[in-house]
Amino acid sequence: MNNIIIDYDSTFIKVESLDELARLSKTSSAKVNNKIKEITNLGMEGKISFSESLQKRIILINSDKEDIEKTVSFLKKNISESFIRNMSFIRKNHNKIFIVSSGFHELIDPIVKEYGIISQNIYANNFLYKNNKIIGFDNENPLSMSKGKVNILKNLKLKGDTHVIGDGFTDFEIKKEGYAKYFYLFTENIKRDSIVKSADYSLKSLDEFIKIYK
Ligand SMILES: [Mg+2]
């Protein structure tokens, strides 16, 4: 039995969903977007923790359920081309495909469910609301902390060979920590040169994965 772990942002879809939520929200402004970038960078430099960075960005984004709906419509039109092309492969293999993302269920589930992915196989964060406004997230979810993806895989205790497809370091980290056999760097949308060396395979599209996997 094989397992296929797929990242969401910049892999299943062309963009980063939280960035799009920030951009499409009613409260969006250049000032807010710059501040968000600053916080993202502080996180990447390790000056603040992942959960602190997430908390700060969500407060700044200041979105509501209407902003989420608008973002979901946008994301539906921004699925990676090779995922659209290979919808039948995804549907056929849906029972072995897991979506593991540090993004949010609200911005992921409506898109991937159209490809036959079942709820139990989607791992992501959850927003917390008050009067339809997003006020934070469930900070007990492992995906809201650093090494979140590694800990999800650790808890899943999957049998057989695990293949991870993603564009980022946290996807590679799953293999690095011993919870996957192969890491495929997905470069259709973005190519992070710093990770190329760590990848077992570099994929320009999902078609390339399907060829290797078969
Ligand atoms: Mg990604």
Looking at the structure, what is the overall shape? globular
Q: Give the names of the bound compounds.
A: magnesium ion
Q: Helix count? A: 12
Q: Give me the Rg, rounded.
A: 17 Å
The CATH homologous superfamily name of the domain at 2-15 and 79-213 equals HAD superfamily/HAD-like
Mean pLDDT: 95
**Helix and strand run:** EHHHHHHHEHEEEHEHEHEH
Strands, total number: 8
- CATH class wording of the domain at 2-15 and 79-213: Alpha Beta
Proportion of helical residues: 40-55%
End-to-end Cα distance: 13 Å
Largest sheet: 6 strands, parallel
* CATH fold call of the domain at 2-15 and 79-213: Rossmann fold
Structural class: alpha/beta
Residue stretches low in confidence (pLDDT < 50, at least 5 long) are none
In terms of DSSP E residues, the strand content is: 15-25%
Q: CATH architecture of the domain at 2-15 and 79-213, please?
A: 3-Layer(aba) Sandwich
Within the largest sheet, what's the order of strands? 3-2-1-6-7-8
